[in-house]
Amino acid sequence: MERVERIVKKWYEGLEEGKLLGRRCPECGHIEFPPHYACNECGHLDTEWCEISGKAYATCFIPQSMMQNNPGLTEEYGDFMWAIVQIEEGDILDGMNTVVLKVGEDRLEELNAKLPVPVKPCIVQRDGYKMLFWELDE
Ligand SMILES: [Zn+2]
């Protein structure tokens, strides 16, 4: 548990500095992002810190209206969609924080027709901490 707290702390410290941190496996070179101690590719039990380039592509857009969860972003950031995002280093992000800001469902068809769509990190200040979201890189 203590190790998990440390990794979460380091992740947020990275965001404060505008850095995206992952963990590289010394055995197979796989990069875990968001960071995990163990490698999900080969099962090696230790990985080391590395910085992620931030180059990424959305491979699917999911309209907000299809999701139960609304993280309360609309008031602050306007329209957004959910997405599956693959970083240049390989890992695929698909979860609660994989949100593409500043893009509305009116662009869903257009964007899904030209996948993969380049996206870039968008680190935003929320209640006392920073969070990683994405925005279109166009
Ligand atoms: Zn590995």
UniProtKB/TrEMBL annotation:
Q: Which InterPro entries match?
A: ChsH2_Znr (IPR022002), NA-bd_OB-fold (IPR012340), Thioester_dehydratase-like (IPR052513)
> What range(s) does the ChsH2 rubredoxin-like zinc ribbon domain occupy?
13-43
The record, for Pfam families, names: zf-ChsH2
Report the protein name in the record: Putative OB-fold protein
Source taxonomy lineage? Bacteria, Bacillati, Bacillota, Clostridia, Lachnospirales
